[in-house]
Design goal:
This protein has a single domain, classed as LmbE-like (Rossmann fold, 3-Layer(aba) Sandwich), CATH 3.40.50. It is 41% helix and 17% strand. The protein contains 8 helices and 9 strands. Helix 2 links the parallel strand 2 and strand 3. The structure holds zinc ion. Residues 16-17, 20, 125, 128 line the site of zinc ion (ZN). Residues 16-17, 20, 125, 128 line the site of zinc ion.
């Protein structure tokens, strides 16, 4: 009997800052990569203000964070990292970003986008909100041949119908998908440890005497132990909702040309009917 291999998807994570993806859904990304899907990471800003240190220039911070992103994503099995290089901190021009993201949805033939929820409750970071919004619009609009027709000149690109958007991190809606990350949690923690920002957070929480900018091998061992404690308990807390040992949570919207395929869900919510149980994968 011939077993048909399930189709490999092109999955594009569109994030604002180099460490966004790792923190929120590295376990899922590693799992999808192990399952044979093609993972691309598109980082919109250089993350060049992302430190509380006072001894670094913006260029040095951007350089450091790009190296961290590449080291972390290597662990996760990411196929390609693309840096758009916008400045960090709320300076991304929306329409220009949307056009670029439509270009990448078409170029990479993105079947699934992973990004921030632009309707998230208590999300204050403008980069997360703008990137989430423009990534969602790009996913829904890349299929229209009359949108940015210059991208299709010479036949290099074609309109492309992206199928779904997976929102990670802070959500504006209860999660409707949980991914079992018990087999990839270790990769997630190792990837998180590649970022100085993560080491800073862990040191602040558990070991304020350690200077994250000058971590000795002994310090790294300690921070790694604390990171394991923190991220294993976070994953267990999320997993508990759906009886998994370790999970990451998402809100997923399926896409039709120009809008989300959510009419039934909206009706159910308007009528006050209970939501469908979340899917586990
Ligand atoms: Zn961020």
């Amino acid at each position: 009997m011939i077993l048909l291999k399930s189709k490999s998807l092109n999955i594009v994570a569109i994030i604002a800052h180099p460490d966004d993806l790792t923190f929120f859904c590295a376990g899922t990304i590693a799992k999808w990569s192990e399952d044979g899907h093609n993972i691309y990471v598109l980082c919109c800003t250089s993350g060049n203000i992302g430190t509380v240190r006072t001894d670094l220039t913006m260029e040095q911070v951007a350089d450091m964070r790009e190296k961290e992103l590449r080291a972390a994503n290597k662990i996760l099995g990411v196929k390609e990292n693309l840096m758009l290089g916008y400045p960090d901190g709320g300076f991304i021009p929306d329409p220009e970003l949307r056009k670029k993201l439509v270009y990448y949805v078409r170029k990479l033939k993105a079947d699934r986008i992973v990004t921030f929820d632009p309707w998230a409750t208590y999300e204050v970071h403008p980069d997360h909100l703008i990137v989430g919004r423009m990534a969602s619009e790009a996913a829904a609009f890349a299929v229209f041949p009359l949108l940015y027709p210059e991208q299709m000149k010479d036949g290099l690109l074609e309109p492309y119908a992206c199928s779904e958007v997976w929102y990670m991190g802070l959500l504006g809606h209860l999660p409707n998908y949980f991914v079992d990350i018990s087999s990839t949690l270790e990769k997630k923690i190792n990837a998180i440890l590649k970022f100085e920002a993560s080491l800073t957070l862990i040191a602040q929480l558990f070991a304020p005497n350690i200077d994250p900018a000058n971590v000795s091998p002994e310090d790294l061992k300690k921070l790694s132990k604390y990171a394991n404690k923190l991220f294993r308990s976070m994953a267990a807390g999320i997993g508990q909702k759906v009886k998994l040992k370790a999970a990451e949570a998402f809100y997923v919207q399926k896409i039709l040309p120009g809008h989300f395929d959510n009419f039934q869900e909206q009706m159910r919510e308007m009528l006050g009917n209970p939501p469908e149980p979340p899917k586990i994968c």
